[in-house]
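Review form for a predicted model. The reviewer records the input and the model, then writes brief findings.
Reviewer: anonymous (R2)
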Amino acid sequence: QVQLVESGGGLVQPGGSLRLSCAASGSSFRRYGMGWYRQYPGKPRDLVAQITRDGATYYADSVKGRFIISRDNVKNTLDLQMNNLKPEDTATYYCNSISWSYSWGQGTQVSVSS
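Model under review:
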């Protein structure tokens, strides 16, 4: 069964950094454009960063210049380096392909607070 497992969340002060990781099982990872999504309570998931199969990256305006998405097609991992975190970044973060090809994982909680 293809799975996504997110990790790396936690509590951080404003201005701090976190690095999220996503491990994907199966052999199709390299074929997919992948993304990091975040979800506020009671709201739908929003795409905040995406990376194509070939490594081109795109970011939502709210995170541009602060977040960096990367992938390793050998290890089947997707990372999100989050810098200069703000309270409004507090959310649950998920990874998935751009076309939602995987079942959603459990997500990882990011809390930004002083």
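Findings: The CA atoms of residues 16 and 84 lie 5 Å apart.
Further findings: The beta strands are 4-7, 10-12, 18-24, 34-39, 46-51, 57-59, 67-72, 77-82, 91-97, 108-112.
Recommendation: see findings above.
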